[in-house]
Amino acid sequence: MLNNPYQQSIARSGFGQPENSLLKSFIPLNRLSEDHLNSLLRDTSVEYLCAGQLVVEAGERDNTHVYLLHGELDIIGADGASTRLSAENSDSPFPVAHSQPRLQTVQAASDCCVIRFDSDRLDGIVAWEQIVSYILLDISSRRELDSDAEWMATLLRSNLFYKVPPINITQILHRFEEIPVKAGDVILRQNEIGDCCYVIKQGEVDVYRAPDHRSAQEMVARLTEGQCFGEDALINNALRNATIKMNTDGSLMRLGKQDFYLLLKEPEVMNMNLPAALKAVDDGAEWIDVRSEEEYEIGHCNKALHLPLEILQLKTRMLNSDKRYVTYCNSGRRSQAAAYFLQSLGYSVSALSGGFRRYSNTEQEQHVQLCF
Question: pLDDT by residue (tens digit) across 134-171?
């Protein structure tokens, strides 16, 4: 229920959940697929504020990305100077006063609305997206995977394996087993205990469901190539909620529950804390910034190579096999993945543990000149 007059007036004016096209104008939301953006939106909502209400306060660590959707905000610095941000006139794609801890206080200058995302969840999804892009680039360059490229791409763009550590994505594809099937084959039965999931490589399946054990099953959906089914058995340890029958001849890719559980374990990657990384750089190692171009332009380490994770494989020609490197990003997720991939190619690479967000602004200023 809307509990203040402004919320009610906004609702009457038709401003509710923002369109994805608006959200895609913000960084790093512009890097997300529709599926992942919609998944993120399910866990958040628009906040409606009256003039004078605080959005964030200097000194707090709220671990969120805040974006202005409608109205105006005042951004107030430590010296009391204020800058006004207007949703209607601003072309800034970045989150509002984004630093942890907050360096500025932000309050509503007019009745307005903002949307606030959990930074860890957002960063995890961005890392997943960029790692997937890296893997799809690798798949497209390998002739032996031509027949698998389509279902692999659809699978990797889905939310099924979001709980899997991003570094393990490369292992997912190797753990599927191909099974030939015929039209009419029953693959799963409602209320059975589940021990695997499937991806449709070729063909179509029909989904049947009965509301209770006394009712007849009715067809409720038809799934096609690249779509998954049976994943609840992996994620929720639940009974099958539907019967799945092949509508055509085809081929399914099967993943067992135990294989899925193995994929949940984080692989070992060489990490360094900030002081150790800075010493390594002093001794001749080089920084590698694996974030997006937009993030890099906001600020980066002095003399850092820019090798965005999603095109890392294309940029390795810039590296020297005799040199040491330290990868970094905001949280450590993307830099760990980059270090893992580069190590597999024979390079001497460590990742900055936890990313720069792990260290306070004071520590950063003491140890390294950054432009963040």
Answer: 888 877 777 766 677 777 777 777 666 666 776 777 77
Buried b (16+ CB within 10 A) or exposed e, 327-358: bbbbbbbbbbbbbbbbeeeebebbbbbbbbbe
From the number of C-beta atoms within 10 Å of its C-beta (0-12, 13-18, 19+), residue 213 rates as exposed
Tell me the one-letter amino acid at 289: D
- pLDDT tens digits, 207-224: 999 998 888 999 999 999
Q: Taking phi first (over 0 means left), then psi (-120 to 50 degrees means alpha), and beta for anything else, what does residue 236 get? A: alpha
The tokens for 296 are 């890099």
Task: Scan for tokens 């957002």, then name that residue.
Answer: 122
**How many other C-beta atoms lie within 10 A of the C-beta of residue 235?**
13
In degrees to the nearest 10, what's the CA dihedral of 22, 67, 129, 264?
-140
- Joined tokens for residue 16: 């509710």
Q: Indicate the SS3 state at residue 40.
A: helix
Length of the chain: 372
Yes or no: say if 197 and 261 are a contact pair by the CB < 8 Å rule.
no
Dist. CA 228–CA 196, nearest whole Å: 11
